[in-house]
Design a protein that fits this description.
The chain is of the alpha/beta class and 417 residues long. The chain folds into two domains: 129 residues, no CATH class; 187 residues, no CATH class. It contains nine helices and 20 strands. The strands form five sheets. Strands 7, 8, 12, 16, 17 and 18 form a six-stranded mixed sheet that branches. Strands 9, 10, 11, 13, 15 and 19 form a six-stranded antiparallel sheet that branches. The protein is globular, with a radius of gyration of 23 Å. The two termini are 39 Å apart.
Length: 417
């Protein structure tokens, strides 16, 4: 199967991805196997029942390239315009310039975050981390090199293993606490904007409505959701060109919605977007994204020109239960009827037009972030797949990455950063 290299070419608006045959990996299978063995240790190893050592080596190498920022989760290779990104560093490391912080930057430089992302990638692909008890660790450590190699060749695919097993089986954003009942609605259209002043959605724009919903028990907690423009045909983010301001480009490439009143039981926000597709690249508690991206699989939605569509309710929770246990989580639910009723109080004309944005899960794309993970919108069965590619050699339409593999879905991403 032909691999694809996505090149962001200067001068296009937005950048066009140009199909190229990806270069062969420089590392030989022997070198990859040697590198992959770094995560097969006397006291811990990765395991997937029925897998072969070659399967582990392949996934480990691909996950390493993804964690470095040189490969997308779909398997494509992306080269970035050097006038926008320093080619000497990965996109992940380049995110430091966005003010993520010295501590995270240091972790990337030291490789700690790359290792964490490599582990996340392997677990998303169905690998389990097995940590051996002390007696078994001692036994494995005492094996001769050849015997130890044979042991790992067998154990990576064994059905029964001894030790503490860490695995992930779902990224579905299940909400553990009862859904708070919505109270009186507040509506936010922007700073110093009268919420009852009529809002016009032009023919060249679109908008989504997002609600923050709380109960008295859920705690006074802010929340944030980040959107990134997405090319659903090619399966990657759409990047803002270098000369966007000079050319008067008004396209929305990236935007956040953050709660305005953490004490409000029901906040409605309108988010203006350019018509097209977007991914929910991150959501969490607080009002800041410290670098997490759902590039291994994100919810994706599309809005049409002139459309206003309800997207989601966000339920930020930071509460102490009667048993003393603190619950910190970020719930996602859909309640278009409540949003329409609340919006009607402030913007009746928009409420009458309010549709519901269809959501698909598991859109993958270039990983721009320090912490790379995945989030599946709860209760959504539809899965994004890239459009079929055109004939080979047609550079006007980049070959799309392969559709997301039907792999096990790992556990919810942490709600706090």
């Amino acid at each position: 199967m032909k691999k694809v290299m996505l090149i962001l070419a200067a001068g296009a608006l937005p950048f066009q991805a140009i199909a190229q045959t990806a270069p062969q990996d420089e590392d030989t299978p022997e070198e990859i196997a040697k590198d992959a063995s770094r995560d097969l240790k006397d006291n811990r190893f990765y395991n997937k029942p029925g897998a072969a050592r070659a399967d582990y080596d392949r996934d480990w190498q691909e996950c390493r390239l993804i964690a470095r920022g040189s490969r997308t989760p779909a398997g494509t290779v992306t080269f970035y315009n050097p006038s926008l990104y320093n080619p000497a560093i990965s996109p992940m490391a380049g995110a430091i310039g966005g003010g993520i912080g010295a501590a995270i930057g240091a972790a990337i430089i030291e490789g700690q975050q790359r290792r964490a992302n490599r582990r996340s990638c392997l677990m998303i692909r169905g690998w389990r981390l097995v940590e051996l008890p002390a007696d078994e660790t001692a036994r494995v450590a005492a094996l001769a090199d050849a015997d130890k190699d044979a042991y790992f060749n067998r154990i990576v695919g064994a059905s029964d293993v001894t030790g503490d097993i860490t695995s992930v089986t779902s990224f579905d954003r299940k909400f553990e606490t009862p859904m708070p009942a919505a109270g009186p609605a507040q509506f936010f259209a922007g700073k110093k904007i009268d919420p009852k002043a009529p809002i016009i959605i032009g023919d060249n724009e679109a908008a989504v409505v997002v609600a923050f919903r709380r109960s008295a028990e859920s705690g006074n907690q802010h929340g944030i959701m980040s959107f990134k423009r997405f090319d659903a045909d090619k399966g990657d983010l759409v990047f803002q060109p270098r000369d966007w301001k000079k050319k008067g480009d008004k396209t929305v490439y990236s935007t956040d919605v953050t709660s305005a009143d953490k004490t409000s039981p029901y906040e409605l926000h309108i988010v203006r977007l350019s018509p097209g597709s977007y991914v929910i690249d991150f959501d969490g508690l607080g009002k800041m994204n410290l670098g997490t991206t759902y590039c291994f699989g994100a919810p994706m939605f599309t809005v049409k020109a002139g459309e206003i569509a309800y997207l989601t309710d966000i339920l930020p929770v930071n509460m102490k239960k009667p048993d003393g246990k603190r619950v910190i989580e970020m719930g996602l639910v859909r309640d278009a009827a409540a949003a329409r009723a609340g919006l009607a109080t402030f913007q009746p004309a928009l409420a009458e037009r309010l549709s519901e944005a269809p959501i698909k899960n598991r859109a993958t794309y270039s990983c721009f972030g320090t912490s790379m993970t995945r989030s599946d919108y709860p209760g959504i069965a539809d899965v994004w797949t890239a459009a079929p590619t055109k004939a080979e050699g047609d550079a006007t339409n980049a070959a799309a990455p392969a559709a997301a593999k039907d792999e096990p879905t790992p556990a919810p991403a942490p709600a706090t950063q």
